[in-house]
Design goal:
Blueprint lengths: L3 E7 L3 H15 L2 E7 L8 E2 L4 E3 H11 L6 E6 L3 E2 L8 E4 L2 E5 L8 H19 L18 H6 L6 H9 L2
Parallel strand pairs: 1-2, 1-5, 4-6, 5-8
Antiparallel strand pairs: 3-4, 7-8
The structure holds zinc ion (2 copies).
């Protein structure tokens, strides 16, 4: 398993990216590197009618950019995401690539916004590390159907998910 995590985003959300990178690295014991992008790659997959980005196509493109790379890549975008039959998604992960959107995480209190972002980032990094959805609503790997689910869950994997992580080499 790679031990490195690259967290990218456009400049407009560099502070948020920094906070997310620090917490994701701490929760999973990875070393995180930040990458500031001039252009948001998500914009290339924006559906002009829906005004949303097709998350799967974006994640797929991210994984093709550097095949066989020895690190995980999480991208943070401000654009809204959707996936398959869902009206929207907070994020999506596949293999060693993932994306999280800040679009639906906004809150009048900035600390609440950051808290939500951290949870969604830790959730998607968990998927990259092999974790599946967890039935425990307090676990970060619980599937968020709505932002209320995100607010209810914690920032950390539950003991059961932690255990699964430890079993893998
Ligand atoms: Zn998930
Ligand atoms: Zn769990």
């Amino acid at each position: 398993m790679p031990a490195r995590l690259v967290v990218s985003s456009p400049k407009t959300i560099s502070r948020e990216r920094g906070e997310a990178a620090v917490v994701a690295a701490a929760v999973y014991g990875l070393s995180a590197v930040e990458l500031e992008l001039e252009e948001d790659p998500a914009a290339r997959f924006l559906d002009q009618v829906r005004r949303q980005v097709e998350a799967m196509r974006l994640v797929d493109a991210l994984s093709r950019e550097l095949p066989n790379r020895e690190y995980y890549h999480l991208h943070i975008t401000e654009l809204d995401l959707y996936f398959d039959g869902y009206n929207f998604c907070f994020g999506l992960a596949m293999d060693k690539s993932a994306v999280v959107s800040t679009y639906r995480l906004k809150h009048p209190r900035p600390e609440r916004f950051i808290e939500r972002l951290k949870k969604e980032v830790i959730h998607e990094v968990g998927h990259m590390l092999g974790l599946k959805h967890c039935p425990n609503p307090r676990c970060v790997m619980y599937f968020s159907n709505t932002i209320l689910d995100t607010d209810m869950k914690g920032v950390e994997p539950c003991p059961r998910c932690r255990n699964l992580l430890m079993k893998w080499p």
